[in-house]
Amino acid sequence: MREISKNLKCVVMRNGIEIWKEDDRLTDLAKKLSSGQKIGFIQIDDELINSADVVGIFSANTMQDMIRRKNGQWKCQYGTWHDKGEKCDCKEKMPKTCISCGQVADNYIYTERGILCTKCWFGR
Ligand SMILES: [Zn+2]
Ligand SMILES: [Zn+2]
Description:
The protein is of the alpha+beta class. Helices cover 23% and strands 30% of the residues. The chain has two domains: 8-82, no CATH class; 94-123, no CATH class. The chain is elongated and about 70 Å long. Bound molecules: zinc ion (ZN) (2 copies).
């Protein structure tokens, strides 16, 4: 996977071509596109883009998510990406913070309300 720098945005075309440009090089295109008017071809740097074929302008993050989905990865409810077929173990990996005393617990019990450390559990 190529490195994607933060201030790059991607113009995705209907034919699947991705045109990566610095954010500020695309302000003009974005403005024209969102105006809703028929604008035809637009020149950006040395390229001529048919505005009718533009699917959208996406951030690097969105593109990265798309690349991951294409590769079969999926995002779990904890916001972590997992490989295809990989099971989500984020719940186990999360720090076990006691809902009563707020300390990270070494020994804990799952309750309906959340995680209780054994001290709070027995001290109830
Ligand atoms: Zn997960
Ligand atoms: Zn506790």
